[in-house]
Amino acid sequence: MDHDHYSDALLRKILNDTKTIAMVGASANWNRPSFFAMKYLQSKGYRVIPVNPREAGTKILGETAYANLKDIPDKVDMVDIFRNSKAAGPITDEAIEIGAPVIWMQLGVRNEDAAKRAEEAGATVIMNRCPKIEYGRLNAELSWSGINSGVISSKRTRKASGPMRRGGFSSRRH
Amino acid sequence: MSSTPEQPDEQPPGDDDDFEVYGFETLAIHAGAAPDPTTGARTTPIYATASYVFDDVDHAASLYNLQTFGFIYSRLTNPTVSVLEERLAALENGRGAVACGSGHAAQLLAFSTLLQAGDEFVAARNLYGGSINQFSYVFKNFGWNCHFVDPTDPENFRKALTPKCKAIFCENLANPGGIIVDIEKVAEIAHEAGIPLIVDNTIATPYLCNPFDWGADLITHSLTKYLCGHGNSLGGAVIESGKFDWAQNDKFPALSQPTESYHGMTFYETFGDFGFTMHARAVGLRDLGPTLSPFNAFLIITGIETLGLRMERHVQNAQAVAEFLEKHPKVDWVSYAGLKSSEFYDLAQKYMPKGPGGLFTIGLKGGYDAGVRMVEACELCSHLANVGDTRTLILHPASTTHRQLTEEQQRASGSGPEVIRLSIGLETASDIIRDLDQALSAA
Q1: Which of residues 193-252 of B touch A (CB under 8 A)?
Q2: Which pLDDT score is estimated for B8?
Q3: Fewest 10 Å CB contacts: which of A138, A156, B181, B260?
Q4: Is there a contact between B21 and A152 if contact means CB atoms under 8 Å apart?
Q5: Residue ranges of domains in chain B, CATH in brackets
Q6: What pLDDT does residue B9 have?
Q7: Chains A, B: CB contacts under 8 A, how many?
Q8: Contact B95/A148, CB-based, under 8 Å?
Q9: pLDDT number for residue A48
Q10: pLDDT value at position B311?
Q11: Is B272 close to A130, i.e. CB distance below 8 A?
């Protein structure tokens, strides 16, 4: 699979099918990027379960934090990795073990070997992207900050919350 | 509907598995501007509002912390302005854009994001005169020091670099002189020094040249010129390519280090490839305040819809007028990169194959006095200080915009006493030529 470019259709499908996200490296500190992403994704109707050994047993944004993925008692649709590229290796293996169908590595995080193992195990892997940014982009919210969404549409958009609803073509200049 | 087994069923919008690649003209009309979500209005509405309600206190906190996307106050974001911003980012093939009140404001936003007091940058000396003033005096008061170099040899930029330099700045098609800078080479020099190349693309416009294709990292615009196109509103913008690594060295602490006024948030870490745009907005627009009015944004959006068509005709008319003037007995020289006689002809073919714009200068054999007589004798061409209008504009810099400078300074900036600047409009080419011909007979 090409990990330099993901189609909008694939990202839409993932963000539509996902209900519960395990966020590895979720921080309790409000000014960390993971906290931004968790809070935003919660506001869009996703359940986000924090995974962070230092915070295990405490609550972050109303959700109990776990020390590792295997401790989570509930079904997880996506593992979102807020750790560095090297650490993403063993976390991916753990995500494969718990049967997560989607493994998503954050902006700046890429681990090709781990991606290969996960894909061989049947998981879908996204790397070097942020689900908050992709959700905002595909729902025209990122556009409010002057960011190029790459989406053109002649259809009226509705307020974005919960599952992805926006159609439209993705676009690049040729 | 008939279909053969080889033809897959038509896919609903958005379910295609790959990028749709759109042309420039399509993006100029559609990018950023889906129908209004509330009313379905197809043209972008003018959102004349200073402020926006919060859903609740937590929503307000999320907005102020930049944890969610949305509108707080029109100094930072406005739905009409954001359509313009996304359109500009799309046309330049960039990641994000921030619009502001003028081209000067765009330069202020760009440099205030990159520079601290005591920092330096290198700029081409062939710039719009107002930029030379801004860089030479007000920026100096901020503690930002500019080194000006002759941009016709890219190596001049390298020679002027110091460890304190945080950027290189140039106009790819310089106003007024018809000079084209070899930006691919200048970008290499900037990147070797770990700093970004900022290219002002005002005169070329994204229709004629895309500086990001040649390695530029930031693009600035005066939207007042060809993008608006009708001489009716001021505006500016900074566009980010999304490709520059702001954390490769310690030169850009505003982006790579925690920001005190956002309680220690780090912009590049949090927003990645649009970290510059977020900072230029959330700190630059917030604290300096050079916001674009939504009314102006609306006029500029409308102008951009026809940018491709207009630039084609600007170039056609400019070429015809330049060829006429080159043969005129009262004209000493014509500096237009579309003429084979121009030393920039080859660079124009490389960087602007659709034509080197609609702005150029000529030199009159009769010097200063002939210049004054010519601008005063025009009946169709307008004697004023602007460029990029539908109307043909004529200016004698030595008696107007450059009159405060010494003759030596005037000559160095390409605006000597004999120089006339022409911004060729969209009138019938033979009418423009007839008016210039009768004005020259008076000169």
Answers
A1: 210
A2: 36
A3: B260
A4: no
A5: 45-303 (3.40.640.10), 308-442 (3.90.1150.10)
A6: 38
A7: 163
A8: yes
A9: 98
A10: 98
A11: yes
Chain B residues in contact with A142 by the CB 8 A cut-off are 69
Average pLDDT rounded to a whole number, residues B172-193: 94
Edge-to-edge strands, sheet with A151-152: A151-152, A169-173, B20-22
**Contacts with B12 from chain A: Cβ below 8 Å:** 167
Between B104 and B127, the higher pLDDT residue: B104
Give CATH superfamily name and number for A8-131: NAD(P)-binding Rossmann-like Domain (3.40.50.720)
pLDDT over 90 at A149, yes or no: yes
pLDDT at A156: 84
Q: pLDDT digit string (tens) for B326-377?
A: 999 999 999 999 999 999 999 999 999 999 999 999 999 999 999 999 999 9
Place of tokens 């007042």: B224
DSSP assignments along B81-142, one per residue: HHHHHHHHHHHTT-SEEEEESSHHHHHHHHHHHH--TT-EEEEES-S-HHHHHIIIIIHHHT
Interchain CB distance below 8 Å, B19 and A39: no
Q: Do A108 and B16 touch (CB under 8 A)?
A: no
Q: List chain A residues with CB under 8 Å of B77.
A: 144-146
Instruction: Tell me, yes or no, if A150 comes closer than 8 A to chain B by beta carbon.
Output: yes
The reply to whether residue A146 touches residue B96, judged by beta carbons under 8 angstroms, is yes
Query: Which of A164, A173, A174 is the best residue to mutate to test the B interface, defined by the most B CB atoms within 10 Å of its own CB?
Result: A173
Other CB atoms within a 10 A radius of the CB of residue B2 amount to 4
Contacts of A147 in chain B (CB under 8 A): 86, 89, 95-96, 274, 277
Backbone angles phi, psi at B64, to 5 degrees: -65, -35
B20 at interface of A, judged by CB pairs closer than 8 A: yes
Decide if pLDDT at B73 tops 50. Answer: yes
DSSP code of residue A53: G
A-chain CB neighbours of B211 within 8 Å are none
Q: Do B265 and A31 touch (CB under 8 A)?
A: yes
Cβ–Cβ below 8 Å for A143 and B86: yes
Q: Inter-chain contact B270–A153, Cβ cutoff 8 Å?
A: no
Which residue of B lies nearest to A128 if distances are taken between CA atoms?
B272
Q: Which two tokens stand for residue B313?
A: 């005709």
C-beta of residue A66 within 8 angstroms of C-beta of residue A9: no
The mean-pLDDT minimum among A27-31, B139-143, B287-291 falls in: A27-31
Q: Which helix (H) or strand (E) holds B312?
A: helix B307-326
- In this prediction, residue B205 carries a pLDDT of 98
B2 pLDDT exceeds 90?
Answer: no
This prediction's pTM? 0.92
Identify which of A35, A36, A152 has the shortest CB distance to residue B22: A152
Task: Give A98-102's long-range contacts (Cβ < 8 A, gap of 24+).
Answer: A98/A69, A98/A70, A98/A72, A100/A22, A100/A69, A100/A76, A101/A77, A102/A14, A102/A18, A102/A77, A102/A78, A102/A126
Across A92-96, B3-7, B48-52, B65-69, least confident range: B3-7
